[in-house]
Design brief:
Strand content: 15-25%
Structural class: alpha/beta
Distance between the termini: 40 Å
Shape: globular
Strand order of the largest sheet: 3-2-1-4-5
CATH class: Alpha Beta
Number of strands: 5
Helix content: 40-55%
Radius of gyration: 15 Å
């Protein structure tokens, strides 16, 4: 069972090193990233809505991040993600508490577009394309390609 769980996590894009609460990319990776977009979600979002949000982000080429493990359990996280992958055909999410902290994300859904030292953040249950349009029209990062 242990081997299957590890294989499952790798297939979902999660690794034991990245999936532990408190672990994630080194802060310098964020500093080196001049322009990026990120979509912050949580397993607390109702399942069907979560699947739709992940699908929209995947279609737009925007990575999806969770703050930590589902129920603080690697096994529970793997089961949850496998369910989403098989039921809704999503690719999965990355676990990155450092990105949540860096951008000050304290609620989800949250869309972030970073440009240099600045970033825009849109919170709430809004269609992803509408949030991107809002940033493009009024944000500090308007006109900047991620």
């Amino acid at each position: 069972m242990k081997r299957q769980t590890i294989t499952l996590l790798l297939a979902l894009g999660l690794t034991a090193g990245h999936a532990r609460a408190g672990d994630g990319p080194e802060p310098t990776q964020l500093k080196d990233t001049q322009n990026e977009q990120a979509y912050f979600l949580s397993s607390s979002v109702p399942e069907k809505k979560l699947a739709l949000l992940i699908q929209a982000a995947e279609e737009a080429g925007i990575p999806v991040y969770f703050r930590g493990l589902v129920g603080d359990s690697m096994e529970q996280t793997a089961k949850f993600m496998m369910h989403l992958v098989t039921t809704y055909k999503v690719q999965g999410v990355q676990i990155d508490p450092i990105r949540f902290e860096k951008y000050g994300v304290d609620q989800v859904p949250a869309l972030v577009r970073k440009c240099g030292e600045h970033f825009d953040i849109i919170y709430g249950d809004i269609a992803l394309d509408q949030a991107l349009t809002m940033i493009n029209r009024r944000g500090e990062c308007s006109g900047v390609k991620p």
